[in-house]
Amino acid sequence: MIIQTSGVSQVFHSEYIKLTFNEKICQRLGGEWDSMVGIFTDISDERVLEPRTLGDWSMRDLMVHIGAWIQEAENALPSIVQGKRLSRSKSLSGGIDVFNARVKDKYQSLSPTKARAFLVIAYQRLYRRLGELPELDTKAQRRLVSRLRSDTYGHWRQHAADVRMWSIKSTVTPPSHETTGA
Questions:
Q1: Contacts for 17 with CB less than 8 Å, ≥ 6 apart
Q2: Rg (Cα) of the chain, in Å, rounded?
């Protein structure tokens, strides 16, 4: 429902209604991606590798973590299309924490450039595959949205907020002894 009644919003709304489900989901994912990926663009390579930036993780660790979860969403697509019950992938054996630790260990030697590329390539593959999906029934559409929300954009929002807080905290310089008189 659109509350605003300007001609622009009505045109946007009528154009949005004409989109297929696949186009809508790609549009949603693309918008969320643009918001999330922007947080990594201005961080220097040195800062990307800084250990324990976010708890036990560096920014590189976070980028490959997000990329790995994008891959998990992509891996779920065949089951969604076939109408199969979704379960967590075999790669998650041992649980989410074990999976996250394996991902961190596997990619710990990546350069910042390669970590960024890993993240972008994972996203591009998922985006392309989403655009290629056949028409899905309503139940499959719900499963797809649920999996995307948990493995991609819902997950991204959580981490983006963490990075923004880190960015704010890291730009605040503690007072020097000269200014405090200590």
A1: none
A2: 20
* CA dist., res. 121 & res. 144, Å (int): 20
> Which single residue is written with the structure tokens 């697509």?
77
Which CATH number does the domain housing residue 75 bear? 1.20.120.450
Domain containing 164 equals: 20-168
Residue 78, sorted as left (phi over 0), alpha (psi -120 to 50) or beta, turns out to be alpha
Let me know if residue 10 belongs to a domain. no
Q: Is there a domain that residue 11 lies in? A: no
- The per-residue pLDDT for range 65-84, each reduced to its tens digit, is 999 999 999 999 999 999 98
Burial of 163 (0-12, 13-18, 19+ CB in 10 A): middle
Number of domains in the chain: 1
Q: Which residue has the tokens 């960015």?
A: 167
Predicted TM-score (pTM) of the model is: 0.82
